Amino acid sequence: MVTLSHQTDERIWHWQGHAIAYRQAGERGIPVLLIHGFGAGTFHWRKNIPDLAQQFRVYAIDLMGFGRSAKPQPGLEWDYTFPTWGQQIRAFCQEVIGAPAVLVGNSIGCVVAMQAAVDEPTWVRGLALLNCSLRLLHDRKRVWYQQGAPYFQKLLQYTPLGAWFFRQIAQPKSLKKILLQAYPRAEAVTDELIQFLLEPAQQPGAVEVFLAFTGYFQGPLPEDLFPQLTCPTIVLWGTADAWEPIALGRAFADYPAVEQFIELEGLGHCPQDEAPEVVNPILQTWISQIALPQDQYQEQ
After folding, report:
1. Residue 25 near residue 4 (C-beta atoms within 8 A)
2. Within 10 A of 220 (CB to CB), how many other CB atoms are there?
3. At what angle do helices 159-169 and 206-214 cross, to 10 degrees?
């Protein structure tokens, strides 16, 4: 396994007047689009792209507001919601990939992928969902002891306070503590990973994007989208995920579209980065199974 390097080219796609960053690798096979989670970017797939590109035409995209993509002003230039990110993914499949793709998501990237599949099923060949966000603070899901969360988030919307809070967590030591909650394998929390995460946080608009999404308690829940899926779907889940408990995620295995629910023993919230040697073979095998012979074409 090798990490992201010269084997992938960072490119820019202009959509709705904004620059969207993405990476591409591989020239043959079914298209695969990798969608990161909150606060991450294409770098979170750096350990997966080279392996997957041996068999597939692989793309990884920075969602609007994250990574190296544009960060337009919330509410005025862009709404940071799952329906709008779903539009971005559908447009990317149509305008850049040019063919229906398998979408692979992590955390909120799973909800984005499902939204795209529900809105435009003809452009999505399949879904691989890694530790799907449960959206536990959603207005329809909060339990009694979480009722104070919206009030705290409203306080954060006061720009000086929100900016101060963001600066506190956008520090190497603070970020490392947060990541160690998500990564049971502490050795996977490297200086490289921390730097990758901190770099976009220093860009103009990053604070506003952070506050816009942390105050987003509406929109679809996973259980709203799962029943509407018509494409083959696989769910992977780290059993040691401290943020999205697998005990709640297991219910997703009962939806008709879900072909497999695979428990990843001892792994956390970002298994593709924590243990690519475990995740990559699973993805390679499953994507190969849903690919058709005519999918073995060269990139246009």
Report:
1. no
2. 18
3. 100
Nearest Cα neighbor of 131 from 159, 110, 152, 104 is: 110
C-alpha 192/C-alpha 1 separation (Å) is 17
Question: Residue 60 pLDDT more than 70?
Answer: yes
Q: 96-128: string of b/e by CB count within 10 Å (b at 16+)? A: bbeebbbbbbbbbbbbbbbbbbbbbeebbbbbb
| Token pair recorded at residue 268 | 């956390």
Q: Residue 238: how many CB atoms within 10 A of its CB?
A: 29
Cα–Cα distance for residue pair 276/89, rounded to 1 Å = 24
Residue 154: which of 207, 205, 212, 204 has the closest Cα?
212
H or E stretch at 87: helix 82-92
| Distance between CA atoms of residues 6 and 85, nearest Å | 28
- pLDDT-derived band at 281 (thresholds 50, 70, 90) equals very high
Angle between helices 159-169 and 172-182 (to 10 degrees): 70
**pLDDT tens by residue, 76-124:** 889 999 999 999 999 999 999 999 999 999 999 999 999 999 999 999 9
